[in-house]
Write a structure and sequence with these properties.
The complex is a heterotrimer of chains A (about 110), B (about 260) and C (about 160). Chain B has about 260 residues and is mainly alpha-helical. Chain B is about 45% helix and about 5% strand. Chain B has 11 helices and 7 strands. Chain B has helices at about 5-20, 35-45, 50-65, 75, 80-85, 105-115, 125-135, 155-165, 175-180, 210-220, 235-245, and strands spanning about 95, 100, 185, 190, 200-205, 210, 255. In chain B, helix 3 (about 50-65) crosses helix 7 (about 125-135) and helix 8 (about 155-165) packs across helix 11. Chain C is an alpha+beta fold and about 160 residues long. Chain C has helices at about 5-25, 40-50, and strands spanning about 55-60, 60-65, 70, 75-80, 90-100, 105-110, 120-125, 130-140, 145-155. The radius of gyration of chain C is 18 Å and the shape is globular. The termini of chain C are close together. The chains are: A mainly beta (about 110), B mainly alpha (about 260), C alpha+beta (about 160). Chains in contact: A-B, A-C, B-C. The interface of A and C includes residues 40, 63 and 66 of A. Strand 6 of chain A pairs antiparallel with strand 7 (about 120-125) of chain C, so a sheet runs across the interface.
């Protein structure tokens, strides 16, 4: 299971634009790199990321091999109501990871 | 060789060693100070620093029961925030059983084999890097504090000798770059002073976390010099000298470097 | 060592390593490295057309923020933002990023809902060489806007013999 790290405010004011930072451990093997015998190392990357706020998608990203190892993504949302921010990563070789954090909106 | 020629040779050799003057304490700088603003920002924000992922893994491993003794690190050492505070700042440290200094990775593996009765973790394995990073982070901000201990002195001298002696096909000494030419550029990259303040660290070139031994092997390769296997006493002596040379500087573990 | 463009990059880097080590030892100025093969401006434009279709691509609104000089091409901090009220009726739907000389022109495609609040994201990308980075923003009204920057990538002097 890949280690993921989410940094989002635990509390926010209604209507406030908040920043969400995400980091996940993944080699992001490009598929363009040769191994010691000269054969290309097969591609192994995260291809999709989504963030939902109480079930509604607020941000998504399609990733390509040009995204650095241990992908870091930050983006924004408007604090609407208290609830859950959920995150999902999927990728090559059946890779999946999920994480969620709670947010209290006052 | 005639006696005169031998004398000239000796003078040249002494000259090479004498050129490697120690950096005055007030002029010492961490590799951090040579980095671009963006790379410093990556180290400054734990949620942007990829090394944090290893620290979190280390925190989990600290609690995990291992080996035939079925003990976790926490079973003996309790809360790492208390028991490991300042520990990494003191390594490599003299180990009475081995009769020589051991680095933090070796110390962790001694715990594994002797206390947990588990197999040692491989150098540069994800688990050993994670535990070292987690333990190292407990000393973040604390001054590097290599004990002034008579027992380590011969090893310190061996490490220093390795640092100032020319070696390899390029006939370079570590000191020529890191004592005499720090702040200059080597192919566009700043030459740092070579203080190991933040290991294990996330190196952008590696795209992963790595140990000080990995960095030293990397340097030796660049110098076209004889390299040593992980855990070799030569590498530990050099680690010891470098940490002593950086004494008083704050621990940055887990740092980021280009 | 991971570089997107594989063998050629390795060869070039090995060459640079040797010259760099020599330059360090003797003070010789580095000779220029030989240009490597890679994706082309044409393949980047094809990738952009894939997103934009026949619609006109205007300059403006979207902005790339990336350091002008990069210490290491393995992890280049990138922020792309686009002016928009981000309302249900008027928002940025997506921002796509492309490069000219990586092995593949696509870097990332980000999609926003109106609840994103701000059409902006940051990530870290790989740049195989000094090259142009292009961002294209797709608005909810169907218009496309772009920005481009030239990024200089320097190579690390001390490389590993993995």
């Amino acid at each position: 299971m890949a280690r993921a790290l989410i940094n989002a405010p635990a509390k926010a004011k209604r209507g406030e634009v908040i920043e969400i930072k995400t980091l996940i451990s993944h080699v992001m093997e490009t598929g363009f790199r040769p191994d010691s015998t000269g054969k290309p190392v097969p591609r192994d990357i995260i291809t999709e990321f989504t963030c939902k706020y109480n079930g509604e998608e607020i941000f998504r990203a399609e990733l390509f091999p040009a995204i650095a190892a241990n992908p870091f993504l930050t983006f924004f949302t408007v604090a609407g109501e208290s609830g859950t921010l959920s995150f999902e990563w999927t990728g090559d070789n059946g890779f999946t990871a999920a994480e969620s954090v709670n947010i209290t909106v006052e | 060789m005639t006696r005169a020629a031998a004398a000239v040779f000796m003078l040249a050799a002494l000259g090479a060693a004498a050129a490697a003057a120690d950096i005055p304490f007030s002029e010492r700088k961490s590799g951090y100070d040579f980095m671009a603003r963006e790379t410093r920002a990556m180290q400054d924000d734990d949620s942007a620093n990829p090394a944090t992922l290893w620290v979190l893994d280390g925190e989990t491993l600290w609690q995990r029961k291992e080996g035939s003794a079925g003990k976790s690190c926490a079973d003996c050492h309790g809360d790492a925030g208390t028991s490991m505070k300042g520990v990494a700042a003191r390594y490599p440290a003299f180990n009475a059983v081995r009769g020589r200094p051991v680095d933090l990775e070796q110390r962790i593996n001694m715990c594994r084999t002797q206390q947990q009765r588990a197999t040692p973790l491989a150098f540069e394995s994800k688990e050993l890097l994670a535990l070292t990073a987690y333990i190292g982070e407990q000393s973040r901000g604390m001054p590097i504090d290599i004990a002034d201990d008579a027992r380590i002195r011969p090893f310190l001298e061996a490490g220093r000798a390795m640092f100032i002696e020319r070696q390899g096909q390029l006939n370079l000494a570590c000191a020529q770059c890191h004592d005499d030419n720090w702040g200059q550029k080597l192919a566009g990259a700043a030459i740092p002073q070579g203080h190991p303040t933040g290991y294990p660290l996330y190196r952008l070139e590696w795209q992963t976390l790595g140990s000080l031994q990995r960095r030293l092997r990397n340097c030796l390769f660049g110098m076209r010099a004889v390299s040593y296997p992980y855990g070799a006493s030569e590498l530990v002596d050099l680690e010891l000298y470098l940490m002593w040379r950086a004494r008083g500087m704050p621990v940055e573990t887990p740092a980021v470097r280009p | 060592m991971t570089r997107d463009d594989g063998t050629l990059q390795r060869t070039r880097r090995r060459f640079l390593l040797e010259t760099a080590a020599l330059a360090g030892a003797t003070g010789i100025v580095l000779p220029l490295a030989v240009e490597q093969s890679s994706a082309t401006p044409a393949s980047m434009h094809a990738a952009i057309r894939n997103v934009v279709g026949e619609a006109p691509l205007k300059k403006g609104k979207v902005k790339i923020d990336v350091p002008a000089l990069i210490e290491n091409g393995n992890a280049v901090p990138l922020t792309v933002s686009c002016e928009s009220p981000m309302t249900q009726d008027d928002h940025v739907k997506a921002i796509h990023v492309f490069t000219e000389k990586n092995p593949q022109p696509n870097v990332i495609g980000a999609g926003f809902g109106p609840r994103a609040g701000r059409a902006s994201f940051s990530t870290r990308i790989r740049l195989a060489d000094t090259q142009k980075v292009v961002a294209v923003a797709q608005m909810s009204d169907g218009s496309f806007w772009s920005d481009e920057v030239e990024v200089v990538v320097t190579l690390a002097a001390c490389l590993e013999g993995s």
